[in-house]
UniProtKB/TrEMBL annotation:
Domain Protein kinase: 41-410
Biased composition (Polar residues): 716-731
Name this polypeptide is given: Protein kinase domain-containing protein
Bias-annotated ranges (Acidic residues): 739-752, 787-802
Biological source species: Lyophyllum shimeji (Hon-shimeji)
One Pfam family named in its UniProt record: Pkinase
Chain positions covered by the region annotation Disordered: 269-306, 465-493, 509-563, 604-674, 691-817
SMART domains linked to this entry: S_TKc
Record-linked SUPFAM superfamilies: Protein kinase-like (PK-like)
GO biological processes: signal transduction
Taxonomic placement: Eukaryota, Fungi, Dikarya, Basidiomycota, Agaricomycotina
């Protein structure tokens, strides 16, 4: 921590709050001193490109600091992802038809729209706050734009490279161990959060600028497991809500997603005992480009043809493949070049073949002792045995992450292994609630559709008895719009956060002064509890204030619960009410209450509460009926698909009838309960680490954990080490050339393409979108949108005018007196 950063750090609290990620629903693109600006981020070099978008180095301009202050410009990585639109979809389909077949071609289209995927990635990243997981700081999600922007922690060291052009390893065994150790900690945390990464590979491990630690990145195909989350929550933390529309169903795991060479056998299980044309009938000899013999893995073949459960263990397998790559400069399983279907052959190899080891490992060429080392506890023998456990084809016999962590080779070189194990243990209470994930979608723009509005208005006057859906909509009184289109930059954030470092929307507005002076309104001041809301939801906030003033807080019987909205709203009928004219039982039939209803966008368009094929209104009315039915008859709860999945995976005898309870889900993961708060752990870690030259990326004075300044709610509160990474330079604190000597030259990782498919079929294509066409257009046209752009967005609009509505899922209903 340097002198300049100290003042920032001392104010930073360390509570774990996934709501920390800022959501901004207005993007202002302009130029400042010739540089493209996106809100208060100055865009610099492009640092990467994925299937869905590009990643740029940006500097956040922090106006609270004077010119020249190192914290005035903070480097961040900004990933821009284009939403799906009909024209882009058409274009992509056309392009795909012309693409040649390749084993490494990404398959991404089967997981739904690009936007759904990016939202899933955002929802997952929002949960993550760990020294070995890349942090998400802000989402810029302006519905009127073609792109969503993710502002992340910038990892200047780049991705972990592991082989040279001759397929030789470029990392020493020591470096490999430290990378794997960091990855284990990050993974352990993710699993604890209920997240299965699904794409662990060297390319998704990013170095910090000083190359002392790596962090897990890219949650594009990650899975948020309800079962895993419940398991991690432990008995006391269960806040189960079977109706939660956002928590992902575990059957999603059966989709094939990840990078082919890193896929676990259970993912491609259908290739088990299925000899490839290029391999021998006994299981085949598939050379891995090594001089050593690759022989059939009789002891490690998959136990049966029944699909094994797909669990977090797939990450453990991928970690094993990663370890192998770093040690030997190649992947353990390869497709037979002679085989006709390359990917088929690769999967066949993963399922049926054993892997080989070279005589030496790492760039320092330490001896391995062969594939089946005997006796002595040499480093080579230790690693090969660990690989044996990691690359265990039978998922039930595969080593767990806990066991990996306490493996001898992993702990090797640590000054105090016991202490390391203790302080790095992920703990902290986890509650399963709708808020965390819905925040990813909490900011919704829409355009007025006057045809629909007028129909709605007239229908309101026609309707005499109040309909159930209206009841539902009123209960969601937090959803309000600004019909005057006066909203400026809107931000969402948990009102629980303190104001000390809140984003300075005034300053931000000033920054774009001249561009939108007429339309930008700064926040109106602190809210009643002294916390300034990030959201400029004037209607909703005032409604909340009313409620706060006039209703004494009565503790709820189930205080921690933040269930699905349909449940809560239904419960409102008996337990809660919001003190506003809209929700008053007396005012319920007043025209004014009905008018309030029309501002609810869930009437107009499908939203996240609408299951596919059902209109939101249907959803609302069904939900209310369902709720009362379930209240009287709990056994009437419909089964979630995850329960079906569980039935499928577990023997029938073990699956009792009845609804899938939290305990049953949790037991399928078998994890204990957790008590320690994350902040407590982080402070413990900070105070416990000692400096060690030998283990620079794990143990250091004020080391990797200590430099965690856990609560940069906005990028303006980035930790000092990030802030000082490149305080004044215009150029990116790039992957330093000098490092190549130590870490070997950068080289291409050809196995880094990610696939995601629904049915395991191979398809070719790329989702690469064009460059920031819309942004440049904005810049060139001074912020005006072209007709072409409008065409993209206005696919289903008739006569529309732009405005916005903000939806806050964090609104709390007041208990009834
Ligand atoms: N936070 C970051 N800091 C530094 N570089 C990053 C960061 N995030 C991504 N990158 C770089 O940008 C590249 C592209 O990242 P991105 O996640 O978009 O692509 P990807 O890993 O191929 O994922 P996808 O599955 O979406 O294609 C990465 O390979 C990495 O080098």
């Amino acid at each position: 921590m340097n002198q300049n950063g100290a003042s920032v750090i001392q104010h930073i609290k360390a509570p774990f709050d996934p709501g920390d990620v800022v959501t901004t629903d207005r993007l202002n693109a302009y130029r400042d001193e010739g540089r493209p600006m996106l809100n208060n981020y100055a865009r610099h070099a492009k640092i990467g490109e994925g299937q869905h978008g590009e990643v740029y180095l940006c500097y956040q301009t922090n106006p609270r600091y004077p010119q020249g202050h190192p914290n005035r410009r903070i480097p961040v990585a900004m990933k821009s992802v284009r939403r799906d639109n009909p024209r882009a979809k058409q274009f992509r389909q056309l392009r795909q038809q012309r693409l040649p077949t390749s084993a490494h071609t990404p398959l991404v289209d089967r997981l739904g729209t690009t936007e759904a995927k990016i939202r899933k990635e955002i929802a997952i990243m929002k949960k993550c706050r760990h020294p070995h997981v890349v942090r998400l700081y802000e989402i810029i999600d302006d519905r009127t734009r073609d792109k969503i922007y993710m502002v992340m922690e910038y990892l200047a060291g780049g991705e972990v490279k592991w082989k040279n052009e001759h397929d030789q390893p470029i990392l020493s065994v020591d470096q490999t161990r430290r990378i794997i150790r960091d990855a284990v900690l990050g993974l352990e945390y993710l699993h604890h959060q209920g997240i299965i990464h699904r794409d662990i590979k060297p390319a998704n491990l990013l170095w910090t600028e000083d190359r002392r630690q790596v962090k897990i990145a890219d949650f594009g195909v990650s899975h948020f497991s309800y079962a895993q989350r419940l398991a991690a929550a432990g008995k006391d933390g269960l806040v189960e809500d079977p109706e939660d529309p956002i928590l992902m169903d575990d059957t999603d795991l059966t989709r094939r997603a990840g990078t082919p060479s890193f896929l676990a056998p259970e993912i491609v299980y259908e290739h088990t005992n299925d000899p490839s044309p290029g391999s021998s009938s006994s299981g085949g000899v598939l050379t891995a480009g090594s001089s050593s013999l690759t022989h059939a893995a009789s002891s490690q073949s998959m136990p049966s043809m029944q699909r094994p459960p797909i669990t977090k263990s797939i990450d453990v397998w991928a970690l094993g493949v990663t370890l192998y790559c770093l040690l030997f400069g190649k992947t353990p399983f390869v497709a037979d070049p002679a085989a006709a279907g390359t990917e088929w052959s690769l999967y066949n190899s993963i399922c049926n073949n054993d892997w080989s080891v070279d005589d030496t490992m790492g760039s320092d060429c330490l001896p391995t002792g062969g594939r089946h080392p005997t006796g002595e506890a040499t480093e080579g023998a230790m690693v090969v045995r660990l690989l044996d456990h990691l690359l265990q084809k039978d998922v039930k016999a595969r080593i767990t992450l806990d066991e990996v962590k306490s493996n001898k080779w992993i702990l090797r070189g640590l000054a105090e292994p016991e202490k390391w194990l203790r302080i790095t243990m992920p703990r902290g209470k986890i509650n399963v609630s709708v808020d965390e994930t819905s925040d990813a979608m909490s900011s919704v723009h829409f355009r007025w559709n006057w045809g629909v509005v007028s129909r709605r208005i007239s229908s309101l006057f026609r309707r005499s008895p109040r309909e159930p859906n209206a009841d539902f909509q009123d209960a969601r009184g937090a959803v309000r719009s600004d019909p005057h289109g006066q909203l400026g930059i809107r931000r969402h954030q948990s009102a629980r956060l303190d104001d000390a470092f809140s984003f300075n929307a005034n300053a931000n507005a000033r920054r774009v002064e001249g561009k939108q002076r007429s339309e930008t309104r700064p926040p109106t001041g602190p809210s009643s509890n002294g916390v300034r809301s990030k959201s400029i939801e004037r209607w909703a906030v005032s409604a909340r204030r009313d409620a706060t003033r006039s209703t004494p807080a009565i503790p709820e019987p189930n205080q921690g619960r933040r269930g699905s909205l349909p449940f809560l709203f239904a419960e409102r009928n008996t337990k809660y009410h919001t003190v506003s004219s809209q929700s008053s039982p007396i005012a319920i039939d007043k025209p004014r209450a009905r008018f309030a209803n029309i501002f609810n966008i869930s009437h107009w368009r499908p939203n996240k509460f609408s299951p596919p094929g059902r209109s939101p209104t249907e959803t609302a009315s069904v939900s209310i009926a369902e709720v009362s039915r379930r209240k009287t008859n709990p056994a009437a709860r419909p089964l979630r698909r995850s329960e079906e999945a569980l039935r499928h995976y577990r023997p029938k005898s073990q699956v009792s009838s009845g609804p899938l309870t939290a305990e049953r889900r949790a037991s399928s993961w078998g994890q204990g309960d957790q008590t320690m708060e994350f902040a407590e752990i982080s402070s413990l870690i900070s105070s416990s680490y000692e400096h060690s030259e030998r283990e620079p990326n794990v143990v250091s004075l004020n080391g990797p954990y200590a430099d965690r300044t856990f609560a940069p709610r906005t990028p303006s509160r980035l930790s000092t080490n990030v802030a000082t990474a490149s305080p004044t330079s215009e150029d990116p604190p790039s992957r330093r050339d000098g490092d190549d000597e130590e870490f070997g030259p950068a080289c291409l990782d050809e196995d880094s393409s990610t696939i995601a498919s629904g049915d395991g079929e191979w398809r070719n294509g790329s989702d690469l979108d064009d460059d920031d066409g819309d942004l440049y257009n904005d810049l060139v046209n001074g912020g005006a949108r072209s007709e072409e752009d409008d065409d993209d967005d206005d696919d289903d609009s008739e006569d529309q005018e732009e405005t916005a509505v903000t939806f806050s899922p964090r609104r709390r209903l007041q208990p009834m007196e």
